[in-house]
């Protein structure tokens, strides 16, 4: 079954479960029944009898069928869309009651066509509704010209057109509301996905660095356990301390808040390089680095040292820091063929740099080995 190109009022209500018209919402619609006073007045002017009583009854049944539409709105919003054939039957019932008013109400019974055209615009898809409204408009104009005793004042045709036009505006508003709700839902899903990616990236950065250092220290402790038990015990103690720190970082990440310290990352980097028997040439102060750049630079230190310890095979590692730039250099094997920022860690670091308005560079160190650099952008420098 194909979807309607222009949603009806019932479609809009059903697509947003919970936005069901209030139990007494029909009272607002009942105000428009005032115009049925015309056929009622015309019937009341006749000599009272059984026919006139039936006329009054027909008008009241027609009014009840109009108000019943708002019950259909509640049912549709709560239980799903009504089948098309049921909507057509409902409109045929209203049209039949309108025709039954003619013997007693005369020309004023055409007032019912205004209600029918409005309900049609609400119930049916746009193309079908416009066709029906056109037929009702033509029927009203023709009947006023051909039925003896009826006058052609054009008011009924104009009222049918205005009623249908007003409901068309309502349809457009509902369509825009549905599209806006769908867009908001898509944006919320994208935000959730982005948060999942951020969380996965943080866990990768935290555990990747910590477990790398733990592995190196555990291997060193295994080698020293016989030759130097005291040193091995110290390395095992460091492993325990690193494991506890990693656990604390994971808990902080799960709690949704974790701020890296550039000075703290440099201290951790020195310990990791020492454990991997890599000579460290690191800055002793970060005072010249603006506060706005420190967290990003801390991530660069963490990711850079993780890669040096894990992949480089280097003997020496150097970190250079200025107010707007940080470099992590080693004398190891250098970048893999093809270069570029590959791997989850470097991809995550590039995303952080982009978000901070900074540029990331990955490539060959001028003296051989690997170079990882991040330069803060103009926004960062200004801050």
TrEMBL record:
<protein>
    <submittedName>
        <fullName>Sensor histidine kinase</fullName>
    </submittedName>
</protein>
<dbReference type="GO" id="GO:0016301">
    <property type="term" value="F:kinase activity"/>
</dbReference>
<dbReference type="InterPro" id="IPR011712">
    <property type="entry name" value="Sig_transdc_His_kin_sub3_dim/P"/>
</dbReference>
<dbReference type="InterPro" id="IPR050482">
    <property type="entry name" value="Sensor_HK_TwoCompSys"/>
</dbReference>
<keyword id="KW-0808">Transferase</keyword>
<keyword id="KW-0812">Transmembrane</keyword>
<feature type="transmembrane region" description="Helical">
    <location>
        <begin position="128"/>
        <end position="148"/>
    </location>
</feature>
<dbReference type="InterPro" id="IPR036890">
    <property type="entry name" value="HATPase_C_sf"/>
</dbReference>
<feature type="transmembrane region" description="Helical">
    <location>
        <begin position="20"/>
        <end position="37"/>
    </location>
</feature>
<keyword id="KW-1133">Transmembrane helix</keyword>
<keyword id="KW-0472">Membrane</keyword>
<feature type="transmembrane region" description="Helical">
    <location>
        <begin position="49"/>
        <end position="69"/>
    </location>
</feature>
<keyword id="KW-0418">Kinase</keyword>
<dbReference type="Pfam" id="PF07730">
    <property type="entry name" value="HisKA_3"/>
</dbReference>
<feature type="domain" description="Signal transduction histidine kinase subgroup 3 dimerisation and phosphoacceptor">
    <location>
        <begin position="195"/>
        <end position="259"/>
    </location>
</feature>
<feature type="transmembrane region" description="Helical">
    <location>
        <begin position="154"/>
        <end position="174"/>
    </location>
</feature>
<feature type="transmembrane region" description="Helical">
    <location>
        <begin position="89"/>
        <end position="116"/>
    </location>
</feature>
<keyword id="KW-0902">Two-component regulatory system</keyword>
């Amino acid at each position: 079954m194909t979807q309607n190109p222009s949603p009806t009022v019932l479609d809009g209500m059903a697509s947003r479960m919970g936005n069901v018209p209030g139990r007494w919402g029909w009272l607002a619609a009942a105000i428009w029944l005032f115009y049925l006073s015309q056929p009622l007045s015309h019937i009341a002017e006749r000599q009272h009898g059984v026919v006139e009583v039936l006329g009054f009854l027909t008008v009241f049944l027609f009014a009840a069928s109009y108000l019943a539409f708002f019950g259909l709105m509640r049912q549709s919003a709560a239980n799903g869309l009504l089948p098309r054939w049921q909507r057509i039957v409902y409109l045929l019932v209203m049209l039949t009651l309108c025709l039954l008013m003619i013997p007693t109400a005369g020309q004023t019974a055409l007032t019912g066509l205004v209600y029918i055209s409005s309900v049609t615009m609400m119930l049916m898809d746009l193309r079908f509704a416009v066709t029906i409204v056109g037929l009702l408009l033509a029927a009203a104009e023709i009947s006023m010209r051909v039925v003896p005793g009826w006058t052609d004042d054009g008011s009924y045709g104009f009222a049918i057109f205005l009623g249908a036009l007003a409901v068309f505006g309502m349809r457009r508003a509902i369509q825009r509301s549905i599209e806006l709700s769908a867009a908001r839902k898509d944006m919320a899903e994208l935000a959730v996905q982005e948060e999942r990616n951020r969380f996965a990236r943080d866990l990768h950065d935290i555990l990747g660095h910590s477990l790398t250092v733990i592995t190196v220290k555990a291997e060193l402790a295994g080698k020293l356990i016989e030759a130097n038990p005291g040193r091995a015990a110290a390395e095992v103690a460091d492993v325990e301390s690193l494991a506890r720190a990693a656990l604390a970082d994971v808990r902080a990440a799960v709690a949704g808040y974790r701020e890296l310290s550039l000075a703290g990352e440099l201290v951790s980097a020195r310990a990791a390089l020492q454990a991997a028997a890599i000579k460290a040439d690191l800055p002793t102060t970060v005072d010249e680095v603006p506060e706005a750049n420190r967290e990003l630079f801390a991530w660069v230190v963490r990711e850079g040292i993780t890669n040096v310890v894990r992949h480089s095979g280097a003997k020496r590692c150097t970190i250079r820091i200025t107010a707007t730039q940080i470099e992590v250099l080693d004398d190891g094997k250098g970048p893999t063929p093809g270069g570029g920022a590959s791997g989850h860690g470097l991809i995550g670091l590039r995303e952080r740099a982009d978000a901070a308005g900074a540029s990331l560079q990955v490539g060959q160190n001028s003296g051989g080995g690997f170079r990882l650099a991040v330069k803060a952008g103009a926004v960062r420098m200004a801050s």
